[in-house]
Task: inverse folding
């Protein structure tokens, strides 16, 4: 139990130290103006991901548990 707690504390400490570096900076004055955002279709990738998850789940459920 103690090693698990130590690993958890280390992960929390690393996340706390790395979070300020992950913050985005405000845009500077000048430079090009960004264009209007384009719409991104989510249907194609989401449906492929869902189909892959269903196929993996069916494979796992049909596998015999002989271990």
Result:
């Amino acid at each position: 139990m103690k090693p698990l707690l130590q690993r958890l504390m280390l992960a929390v400490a690393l996340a706390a130290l790395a979070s300020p570096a992950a913050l985005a900076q405000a845009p500077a004055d000048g430079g090009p103006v960004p264009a209007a955002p384009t719409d991104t279709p989510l249907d194609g990738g989401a449906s492929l991901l869902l189909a892959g998850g269903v196929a993996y789940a069916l494979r796992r459920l049909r596998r015999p548990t002989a271990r």
